[in-house]
TrEMBL record, chain A:
Source domain of life: Bacteria
Protein name: Putrescine-binding periplasmic protein
Subcellular location: Periplasm
Coiled coil: none
GO molecular function: polyamine binding
Keywords: Periplasm, Signal, Transport
Taxonomic path: Bacteria, Bacillati, Actinomycetota, Actinomycetes, Pseudonocardiales
InterPro entries for the chain: SBP (IPR006059), Sperm_putr-bd (IPR001188)
Residues spanning the signal sequence: 1-36
Primary residence: periplasm
Claim: Signal is one of the keywords in the record: yes
Biological processes annotated in GO: polyamine transport
Pfam families: SBP_bac_8
UniProtKB/TrEMBL annotation, chain B:
Protein name: ABC transporter permease
Transmembrane segment boundaries: 12-35, 74-96, 105-124, 156-177, 198-223, 254-274
Subcellular location field: Cell membrane
Domain ABC transmembrane type-1 residues, every copy: 70-275
Amino acid sequence: MARKDGTVRIARLWDTDSRRLTRRSMLRSMAFFALAAQGATACAISEAPPRNASGATNTKASNNVAENRLNFFNWTDYIAKDTIPGFEKESGIGVTYDNFSSNDELEAKIATGAPGYDLVVPSDNFLRRFVRTNLVRPLDHDLLPNLKNLERRFREADYDPGNRFSVPWAWGTTGLAYSRSQLGTEVTGFDAYDLPAARGRSIVLDEARDGMGLGLLALGYDPNTKDAQQIEEATRYLLDLKKKIGQITSDVVEPLTSGQTPLAQVYSGDAFQAKDTNPDLEYVIPEEGGLTYVDLLCVPATAPHAENAHRFIDYILRPDVGAELANTIRYGSANTAAKPMIDKELLDNPMVYPPADVLAKLPFTKDLGPDVEARYADAWTKVKTG
Amino acid sequence: MARRRVPRWLAANLLLLPAGFWLAVFLLVPLALVVEYSFATRDTGPLRVVLPWTTRAYRTALDPAFLPIFGRTLTYAGLTALACLLLGFPLAWFIARHAGRFRTALLAAVLVPFWASYLARIYAWKALLDGEGLVNRLLGLVGLDRDGGFLLTDGAVILGLTYGFLPFMVLPLYVACERFDYRLVEASYDLGHGRVSTFFRVVLPGVWPGVLAGSLLVLVPAAGDFVTPKLLGGVDQSTFGSVIDDQFRGGNNWPLGSAMAVLLLLLVVVVLMLRGRRGEDVL
């Protein structure tokens, strides 16, 4: 019959014609499995952990596993050719070198119990989160005599005062990248988002603190403010800015290199990477200011070879090693002692090493505590959905 | 010695075991977790969700600020289903009725794009729709180009979704068209109907289950998709799916993301219940 024939059965959970397996018995079984599933997951959620309980008094670092190994987890394309071979030769420690391409990826790995990594390199915003939840161990300063080589700014930095948990690998700034030929003018500040050529095509970073930072800086506020009123004003500013921009995304290198976007808020490292393929691009630190970000070496709490990790950190802090690293990756180096060996042309580049008056407008992203950080995250959701 | 028989009720349940296990592991446990997370308190650290239980996430998710996104998501999904139907029906009809021995090859051709990663194909659309892309330049020849291209527009998102979900529409429609008794059309002509009324009064009712099945198969995933609006859309194209994605990644608010996922699920269930009695034969 036409009606029956015309019936298309894409999926059937149960056959109503069969007597043995009635709808009711099926539902009963499903209810049973649902309960079982609920039981299996009931233990998945626990109480909030004590905040900032990382005041572990014992910082003495030793290897849990007595072997000459070091498992190092770093960003892709972020090391000098001789960094690891040099360390291996000097120390006799074999290094396993793995790469990740986002902080989320790193967090996913180490939050689930760190598959044996001894040394990882999160950005400062993620380090703050790791510290808050005891994912990293305090550093043993007795094993790091070269710590004195660090620039003072990085020894007192807001994200980790006194280098209790981390040592800088490299640092950069959050600013604007733009195509001079497309915009037809120099960019000096956030008013570039008003340029007709940028309308509907520009990008703001999809990262709560950086995006909100743009709004706060544009209004002349401190990007580390805790003031709810100022955060609220920045939210409104950004909702207004949203009408002029094209996208909110952290995926900026591809649209910049292809010329699809003429203006984007970027991390300086990404800007230089895009500039390698598209020489038309320029990077600028807006006159309103920006933020300094730092990628940091730290040791996961579960590291099997913590002592070896310390030896590597101390090795990186050596002037010659630090200089070679800085010359290769072309990011800012936090190593004062290495400065004399860093390429002059790099040191003179104000976009890599901004002069003191500009640096004053480039604070680190402070850890504002869980409540204020949540306020930033919610304001950002508002911006994105509003 | 007589073999002891397994009691009937036990046998039935034992037979259910593999399927039940599959359902539990891949459907019920994840679903239970989502529901559970949606009532938990958010943690800004890597634990993400902690006790105590609360309905705060639902109160946030039902905030009127999210209403436009809700509406946009449904509009995208609805228009996508409609576009898939308009494109898919002629194709399915042609393959089922007129393709002859090329039928299998043509059906395979509908599926072949599925072999490549969806992400890669969406990136291809990005390049095509860009201001300097092929689409804009071709349209430029007839003066229909748009400054900056069609990327980051509602149209781009609907196009991407339509492209991505078209096979879900074509396959059930094909089955329906294939089973459709063509003699009914001849009878309709004999009895004095014209082409148009034959289509609406004979063909469409005949293949209606296929239309419903295809529409649901497109509507449901299109409503939940977040990759397409993220990559082809701009600041004003965020959908329910992309907001959920934000809560799980950058926003670090798993309870809110879970609550929104549950609401989306309920919405889909409502749609499924509205499918009507004929639809019950379908899914």
